[in-house]
Amino acid sequence: MNKLFYTFVICHLTLIAVSQCRVDSTLFFKYDLGSTTKEPLNLTVYSYNLDNSIGHEILFHWDKTHSVWNSTNQTEYAYNGEGMLTEELTQEWNVASNSWKNSFKFNYHYNSKGELSHSFYNEWDSATSSWKNSFLRSYYYNSKGDQTQYLFQNWNESTSSWMNSSKYEYTYNVEGKILSELFQKWNASSSLWINGNKTDYFYNSNSIVSQEIMQIWDTSSVAWLNSVKEIFTYRLDGNLSFVNRDWWSRDKMDWVKFRLESFTYDGNNDKVGRLNQAWDDIDSAWVNGLKDTWEYNANRDLVANDFYYFWDESSMRYNFHYREEYICAQMTQTKDPNKDKAYFIFPNPVSNNTVTVHSESGDDFRLLDISGNTVFRSILDKGANQVKLGSLTSGIYIAKVGKKMHRS
Predict the structure, then answer these.
(1) Can you say whether the dihedral through the CA atoms of 79, 85, 87, 89 is positive or negative?
(2) What is the pLDDT of residues 156-172, one digit of tens each?
(3) In a domain, 71, yes or no
(4) What burial class does residue 373 get, using C-beta atoms within 10 Å of its C-beta: 0-12 exposed, 13-18 middle, 19+ buried?
(5) Which runs of consecutive H residues, i.e. helices, occur in 267-394?
(6) Would residue 1 count as lying in a domain?
């Protein structure tokens, strides 16, 4: 069986800046091998409400033959009286009827404290012209507002009820920092939750995560076995410098090198580079894998993100180069850079159809193919999120993290 290979690009729409530029459109380009000329692929245009919460976005695909932008899909956002997101409705452009057709939607419900309690995903059934239940996510919290459980359920058409699928359980220290994450799958035959994997988190003296260890449940030995370890190294200013990712060797009974991510920053402490490398056991050296670079304007607003894939050692260059440019028409209120959200994804490339996405709050997580079509969507929880990617085919995908659950 062929091993699936996913490559992600992390696009930060939350800007790391002192003054915040509202992104009104993004342009996505591709470079031909060895060329410095960029070819447009996709254009996304955003419109906002009076309070700067996003109200609508529309995606266009560049028709190279006719040199025109063609609509592909659009998403409309709705909020309640407290400014919390309640619905995301996505429609696809139907060329035959020359009109928008429903595709899927998310609906969000909150408890009396304003915490996200449920998110429903529905798909449009064109045959019956109605929305069909697909899956439900339920969120549970402790008295401090820390999320303690996340339950995923699928809709069963035959019984017209929600059926358990998987869940995560979280524990925290007295400071509210996550200590452990347990993933379990539902066994319908035994009506029991079955262990899948767990992750333990460790912190340095500054209460910043310094190490994560993931273990998988072994049913034969009825015990937890080491799987992956991530070690985080920070600069004196607190910015992330390195992430070392090791995997557990059953043969050596020890941790062995697997991947290394290195981050670079400019004089304003804004991130300008990320290099992902894989360990070569034969040459005992790190080999380039992926690379990102970020550009800022004079106001420290993010204006572009370049990403490179598939390093060719013989020609000493990357075989794929893409670029996303962010265009803003106006400035919003100044923000505190210390409150900026941080996101990162491991592993990249992906193994075992699972990726861990770190987020500081509940945000939208989307995977787009190179044509800009959404192929996977999920809502992130606070802390580490282990996302099962399902049946995606091998290839390059764009990972977009953004769309706050509350108005800013």
Answers:
(1) positive
(2) 999 999 999 999 999 99
(3) yes
(4) middle
(5) none
(6) no
Tens digits of per-residue pLDDT, 194-203?
999 999 999 9
* Dist. CA 1–CA 352, nearest whole Å: 13
Pairwise CA distance, residues 198 & 345, whole Å: 17
Helix (H, G, I), strand (E, B) or coil at 250: coil
User: How many whole angstroms separate alpha carbon 168 and alpha carbon 366?
Assistant: 20
Give pLDDT tens digits for 293-317: 999 988 888 899 999 989 998 888 9
Give 113's Cβ-side CA count (13 Å radius): 12
Q: Residue 113: what residue type?
A: K
Question: How many Cβ atoms from other residues are within 10 Å of residue 145's Cβ?
Answer: 11
Owning domain of residue 324: 6-404
> Which residues does 166 contact at the CB level (< 8 Å), separation at least 6?
152, 183, 184, 185, 186, 196, 388
User: Is residue 341 within 8 Å of 366, Cβ to Cβ?
Assistant: no
- Separation of alpha carbons 210 and 243, rounded Å: 9
Residue 300 CA to residue 265 CA, distance in Å, equals 12
- Per the CB < 8 A criterion, the answer to whether 261 and 243 are in contact is yes
Please work out, in degrees rounded to the nearest 5, the angle formed at the alpha carbon of residue 20 by the alpha carbons of 14 and 26. 55
Domain count, the chain: 1
The answer, yes or no, to whether the previous bond of 347 is cis (omega within 30 of 0) is yes
Does 168 reside within a domain?
A: yes
Residues 6+ apart with CB under 8 A from 159: none
How many Cβ atoms from other residues are within 10 Å of residue 375's Cβ? 16
Pairwise CA distance, residues 63 & 71, whole Å? 10
The identity of residue 59, as a single letter, is L
Which H or E element spans position 44? strand 38-48
Token pair listed for 185:
């799958």
Give the Cα separation of 303 and 13 in Å (integer): 10
Which residues 6+ apart lie within 8 Å of 138 measured at CB?
117, 118, 149, 150, 151, 153
Asked whether residue 308 is domain-assigned, the answer is yes
